[in-house]
Amino acid sequence: MSEAASPALTRRRFEPLWRLAGRRLALIPLLMLIVSLAMFVLLHLGRGDPALDYLRLSGIAPSEQAVATVRHQLGLDLPLWQQYGQWLWNALHLDFGTSYITGRPVLLELLNYLPATLWLVAVAFCVTVVFSVLLGVIAGSYPERLPDHLVRAVAFLGVSLPNFWLAFLMVLVFSIWLKWLPPMGYGGPSHFVLPAIAISVMTISINARLLRTSLVEVAGQRHVHYARLRGLSPSRRLRAHILPHALLPLLTASGMAIGELIGGAFVIENIFAWPGVGRFAVEAIHNRDFPVLMCFTLLMTLVYVLANLSVDLVHAWIDPRVRRRTQGPAPGGEHA
Amino acid sequence: MLALENIDHCYGDRRVLHDVSLSVARGERVALVGGSGEGKSTIARLALALERPSQGAFKLDGAPVGRRGRALKTFRRQVQGVFQDGPGAVNPGHTIGRIIEEPLVHLSRHSARARRARVEALLEVVKLPASYAAYLPHQLSGGQLQRVCLARALAIEPAYLVCDEATSGLDTVLQVELTRFLADTCDRTGMGLLFITHDLRLARRLCHRLIAIEQGRLVDDVIAGAAFTHPAARALEEAVLPLAPIKTAAHKTHRAPQHADTVV
């Protein structure tokens, strides 16, 4: 409509999005504080002494004096609340300490590994979205017919296969037998294929079934049925009336999928020797590298929250009802 | 002429229509009356080619209605429908303007500018402000949405309109206003109307001809002023309470301050 192009309406359209984004961004510092406190307490509740690990990794004999010195150096001899306060003060200045393993600043180390992980997760996310929609639409367009049964069978197989086992299987078939793709390492596009598929297969299987159900449900609604009266072809009905509504549950699930993909990436990075934060974090867990684990947790929380915020903004942008919930009173009517 | 000839229709093993023959001429207003579950809505869906009859012929101006492609599109340009459930009949994610514009996009060759002008004109016709074009369905009342559906159905100026209980969910004043509007439109444009209802009073007020249906069979066909002859149809008539005089002007005066926008 003509109003859609007017600056006033454009402002009205995007205003709630900015408001939603602002509100959610404002909550991030509080969320990070809670996560950091919880993580700090959990790490210190665990067994073992980081000072001993530090000495072991440094190749120094763990004498009583050496342990005491290291504990003092690392601030581990202070009361827990003081340790946290010190860590928090430094963190506010973007100083997350140094890694016990490498002796380098933690933030720099993680930022060094993070791009590889984010690339992998981003590619896996794209693969997930494309194949979820494709398979979901195929299954939802032919409910209870052969394409639907085939997609459901594939999806069933997909959710049943653990990603690490699928990764080994794909390496065996595509790298060792067929020699089509590299078995491990980080480099060109071909290196992304196997890890991205291994991470995303389970999420694709779940999302395709979710979309299929959603499509069948929306396709049965009266307004879709009556759209035939206006001369809309089946494909136009799908694009204009079915998909925009059927995709909404998938969009919500995508927010959670990002978490699953990040989690999956940590396992898969170890199998494919992918130089991402996953491998680094796993090493840090084994060696009780507290500064790395603290920084890593906060970084992942931030990535997860921002990814979910993006999903919510896209949701609000696609579904005008969500947008208008934050607007003023409706012009009239009992539905208002 | 829109004609259903010797139609039998089944859902699985259940036969819901028996040898139904019904026709609506251009400019004619025909009411199909009957109780719930008698087959009225099935006839509406058949008359709108949303379903195909199990047996019998469905013709528009003497020619069988095409099943798909261009032939079906030609039929859609000529025959439109309005249903009882306004909120359910519109896409909740589309603006009112887009909803009304949709048949113009797919069934006509109007330019974007002409379509916008037509939407504004249609909103005015159904007594809704032009600004409502930017609003979403959940921001309007059921009565307002019903008028939006009517505006959408009339957008391409169809030759025939099928209204399936289109006024049932509305209050009495709005029912009278809508039926008056339909009568005016039919007289002005020569549009044929198949008005499906269980409200005999409205049917008599609006239509030239009344057809009664019982258990999937057309049992009576009389002109508006005449009484039904079939016992089942007469029973329908006897069930109607005496018609109270409708004080349209007084209602308008009464409603205007609270619902100025809903008065047609």
UniProtKB/TrEMBL annotation, chain A:
Instruction: Spell out the family assignment given in the record's similarity comment.
Output: Belongs to the binding-protein-dependent transport system permease family. OppBC subfamily.
What keywords appear on the UniProt entry?
Cell membrane, Membrane, Transmembrane, Transmembrane helix, Transport
Which CDD domains does this chain map to? Answer: TM_PBP2
What's the protein called, per UniProt?
Answer: Nickel ABC transporter permease subunit NikB
Identify its membrane topology class: Multi-pass membrane protein
**Pfam family, any one:** BPD_transp_1_N
Compartments (UniProt record): Cell membrane
Organism the protein comes from: Larsenimonas suaedae
The answer to whether keyword Repeat applies is no
Residue ranges constituting the ABC transmembrane type-1 domain according to the UniProt record: 114-311
InterPro entries found in the cross-reference section: BPD_transp_1_N, MetI-like, MetI-like_sf
| Bilayer-crossing regions | 21-45, 118-142, 154-180, 192-211, 246-268, 290-318
From TrEMBL, chain B:
Can you say what this protein is called?
ATP-binding cassette domain-containing protein
Tell me which InterPro entries the record gives: AAA+_ATPase (IPR003593), ABC_transp_ATP-bind (IPR050319), ABC_transporter-like_ATP-bd (IPR003439), ABC_transporter-like_CS (IPR017871), P-loop_NTPase (IPR027417)
The family database entries (SMART domains) matched by this protein are listed as: AAA
Q: Which Pfam families does the UniProt record give?
A: ABC_tran
Q: Which family does it belong to?
A: Belongs to the ABC transporter superfamily.
Name one molecular function that GO assigns to this entry: ATP binding
> Which SUPFAM superfamilies does the annotation name?
P-loop containing nucleoside triphosphate hydrolases
Entry keywords, A to Z: ATP-binding, Nucleotide-binding, Transport
Chain ranges of the ABC transporter domain: 2-240
* Keyword Ligase among record annotations: no
Show the stretches that span the lipid bilayer.
none
